[in-house]
Amino acid sequence: MNTISILSTTDLPAAWQIEQRAHAFPWSEKTFFGNQGERYLNLKLTADDRMAAFAITQVVLDEATLFNIAVDPDFQRRGAGAYAA
């Protein structure tokens, strides 16, 4: 079962690993950890009891911006990115 929930601070190490594995040119550690906190609405997708993907977003009034999305390579080509977006 797939579940979308808030990306918490305890999830960040796993999300950082996905960031490194999923992108040819991943964000720097400073950028990744700097895009967390109350100004952001960051989400994770859990599948098979593992974090499969995450999205870094920011919502201001009625507008949302997607800054980053990453799907763990183990879950790619299975619709996880479309589900998370």
Automatic annotation (TrEMBL):
Transmembrane segments: none annotated. GO terms for molecular function: acyltransferase activity, transferring groups other than amino-acyl groups. InterPro entries: Acyl_CoA_acyltransferase, GNAT_dom. Keywords: Transferase. Residues 2-85 form the N-acetyltransferase domain. This is Ribosomal-protein-alanine N-acetyltransferase.
